[in-house]
Amino acid sequence: MPEPRKRGRKPKAPETETLTMDYQYTNPTPQNDATVTDTHHNPSSPRRTRGRARRALTEDDNNNNNGNVNNSNSNIGHLASPERSRHGDANEITILPPRWDSVAFKAVPSMDAVVKVFCVHTEPNFSLPWQRKRQYSSSSSGFIVGGRRVLTNAHSVEHHTQVKLKKRGSDTKYLATVLSIGTECDIAMLSVNDDEFWEGVSPVEFGDLPALQDAVTVVGYPIGGDTISVTSGVVSRMEILSYAHGSTELLGLQIDAAINSGNSGGPAFNDKDKCVGIAFQSLKHEDVENIGYVIPTPVIMHFIQDYERNGAYTGFPILGVEWQKMENPDLRMAMGMRRDQKGVRVRRIEPTAPESQVLKSSDIIISFDGIDIANDGTVSFRHGERISFSYLVSQKYTGDTAVVKVLRNSEVLEFNIKLATHKRLIPAHINGRPPPYYIIAGFVFTAVTVPYLRSEYGKDYEFDAPVKLLDKLLHAMAQSVDEQVVVISQVLVADINIGYEEIVNTQVLAFNGKAVRNLKSLADMVESCKDEYLKFDLEYQQIVVLQTKTAKAATSDILSTHCIPSAMSDDLKT
Predict the structure, then answer these.
(1) Active site residue 155
(2) Distance from C-alpha of 353 to C-alpha of 478, rounded to nearest angstrom
(3) What is the pLDDT of residues 549-572, one digit of tens each?
(4) 264 catalytic, yes or no?
(5) 171 included as an active-site residue
(6) Which of 4, 121, 190, 482 sits CB 3.0–4.6 Å from 176 for a disulfide?
(7) How far, in Å, CA of 508 to CA of 538, rounded?
(8) Which of 121, 155, 159, 302 is catalytic?
(9) Which residues lie below 8 Å from residue 542, measured CB to CB, with a gap of 6+?
(10) Rounded to whole angstroms, how far apart are CA atoms 557 and 44?
(11) 188 and 182 in contact (C-beta within 8 Å)?
(12) Interior CA angle at 231 toward 227 and 232, to 5°?
């Protein structure tokens, strides 16, 4: 006897599992742990539903339900519910097609200004700096602004070989030119020479900085389909954020709208159809849901105006100091502060920063451009909101002057300081340039950068890289604008370097008794050396000694064996 049929709900299909993401890859991804990750989809099986047929989903419904809109007809704003009629048997239901005279059409000019960005990337090979990695493709989003320009994310076109744009509803891809890339703010500016691209589209207009709980709509071309997608949410937080690509901290918006792979570079609109930001990153963790981040209009306008003023991106200036909070009352009393005085204490000053000429350690910064700084380093932002005073600095441009008041030995002093960008001892980016290298007797010398560490040790380089290099990355300051951390990246094995094969990523401190300031100075000293021996002093009290004539003679054979075109990169030849 067959078992009785059980009634009840069918188990749900497995949900989509999403890891942290960035722009969308269109072919197998290379090993790149910088900001690019992956998204896995577990397609759910179709499930029969009981009861009435579902009403067709609309763009407005998606805005209210945080869903994606992938309409094949971009002009349809609302689809009426399909008509229903009964024929014959009472249980038989016939679904009739919708009457197209009941369809409401709605034009959305701002959505027409959103484009899909196709990019072919060719990244440097930091392990073999004389060549590049295999090229790969990605897709992301962008939008048209005034002046025949398009904005997208910097990481969307990083190490670009070719960039193409496609408008909404179009079947044509147009070649684009990259005008400027802002690494810190993660914004890139593009342009298209073909006049046909600019026909029939209006540039996006920018709105004011939104308030908390203001509605936002993110538009772009994320993974999961080829057509435009819309997700909606509200502004849930506004503060100084860590920009993952730029390795810096700037003003950012946190929203609860979904930002998925491929959304990067797409605009975020307010309820007045004004752009209030650019989608650029999201937080994916098992303990959080729907946390996306948007670059706000003050940062966007700073990037655009910087380009218009200087013809190129010059960056966001910094104050060039490390500071300490003054929240402890005993600390304030010891520093000679009155009860009505507030500020932060200067710990260290960048030797390469203009501030090093006027500020001193243990100065108390009490105001910046006339705005008082609290003991926790914040300033008044808007009603009921406070923000780090670094926001005031980031609103300036490179070369601008700021008035800084400090308390020194119980005396208030005022300085006019010229602001400059940050000179890192270990740079966070190489700004599209190929990595430098120099080879002698099989020893490959290079300068350490964050991309180099990431290439050598993966995304967890802050845990896996040598302690000495990490200490310089996190704490050391450049003593001059051209100072670099030079290391022996690897040793190309040959008879002349027997016994040195295991030297990897070890810093070079001196050559023949002279300190190594940067890679070019090392190359110049080696090339011009007339001494009998080449002696390299390394970290951890190691030394490398080679006969000068033998080492230089062996270099050409080693280059030929490894198909290396030159013993040094082009930037070292000038």
Answers:
(1) yes
(2) 10
(3) 999 999 999 999 999 999 999 999
(4) yes
(5) no
(6) 190
(7) 5
(8) 155
(9) 503, 506
(10) 59
(11) yes
(12) 155
